[in-house]
Amino acid sequence: MYEPLCKSECARDGHGKAATHARKRARRRPRKLSAAGLVIGAWALLFSTLAAQAQAPRGAVNYEISPMVSKIRFNVKASVPIEGTFEKWDAKLAFASPEPASGVLEIRIQADSVNTGSQMKDDRLKSENCFDVAHHPYITFRSSKIVQTGPHKFDVWGMVTIRGVSKSEKLTFTADRREYGKGTIKGNLWFYRKDYGLGGSVPFVTIADQVELTVEFKAKRVSGPPLLFKP
Prior knowledge:
The protein is of the alpha+beta class. It has 2 domains: 1-56; 61-223, Lipocalin, CATH 2.40.128. 27% of the residues lie in helices and 42% in strands. The chain has 2 helices and 11 strands; from the N terminus they run αββββββαβββββ. It has helices spanning 2-55, 119-126, and strands spanning 61-65, 71-78, 82-86, 89-95, 103-110, 114-115, 138-148, 153-162, 165-176, 182-192, 207-223. It has an 8-stranded antiparallel beta barrel. A hairpin with a 3-residue loop joins strand 2 (71-78) and strand 3 (82-86). 17% of the residues are buried.
């Protein structure tokens, strides 16, 4: 009787162990499903992030600046006013992305287009003692950094080249952005004329060293998404 009883007990013990293992597997199964759910959730979050990034504005942004409705002026403090405009020039404003900091502003002025309203002054400014237009026909500016300092204000650092001399200068401007895709850019750039070898004189006239260059550009976005300005 002992052996059959042992077999019966062993059988029951075997069934008991099998049941215990089954319960353990059942308890583990939800944990595996939970881990799988986390993986699926992570992928879903990744795909939603990528989709949101795909919908964000991308690509280059280009603005057209028309000389027909824009102006570049200059002014030098003197005992007799020396001020005028440059009649011939072109400018480009382009951004590698919708971020304003990615922008580059380029200005190229034809030096012999200077116009003060006085032929005598114009001739002196064009002479070899000043702009020397025969050897240096262009005055240029190319920005290297654009920093937004306020809702509508920007500091634009760049290289100014006059008479073959290049120096880093800062153009400070405000942008009127009330029209969608259009705006007016008004800025000032100050430099010392003697740094660029701009000499010359006018009889009986005292001329200051500092020159103010003023720009007023009408800009229109012709391609790319809107810029993402700081509030």
